[in-house]
Amino acid sequence: MSKRREYEEQVRAKLAKLEAEVDAIKKDIEAAESELTSEHHSKLEKVSELSDRVGDKLEELAEAGEDSWEHLKEGIEHYYQALGNEVKSFNKL
To answer: How far is it, in rounded angstroms, from Cα 61 to Cα 5?
Structure first.
């Protein structure tokens, strides 16, 4: 298996884990809708946007050639890290 494929699978697995956490947060939000603040809604929007960006970057990675995928790695890591940080900060609210 190529390094690109290996990396893509690792990021997809990590993203799936974070998306499961986001789904759990959404369920908690739905259950406590009356107690939510604008900060909760704002953070949830940011989490959704970052998740979409990671997904977009993964699609770019999947379409990249074996010799050109390395430059996408930094962007993917950036958005993935930002998504993880937002999920963690959301849980602190």
So the answer is: 9
d(CA 80, CA 64): 19
Burial classification of residue 27, based on how many CB atoms lie within 10 Å of its CB (0-12 exposed, 13-18 middle, 19 or more buried): exposed
DSSP letter, residue 33: G
- Residue partners of 8: CB distance under 8 A and separation at least 6: 58, 61, 62
**So where are the chain's domains?**
3-91
> Is the CB of residue 87 less than 8 Å from the CB of residue 47?
yes
Give tens-digit pLDDT for 26-52. 888 777 777 777 887 888 888 889 888
pTM above 0.85, yes or no: no
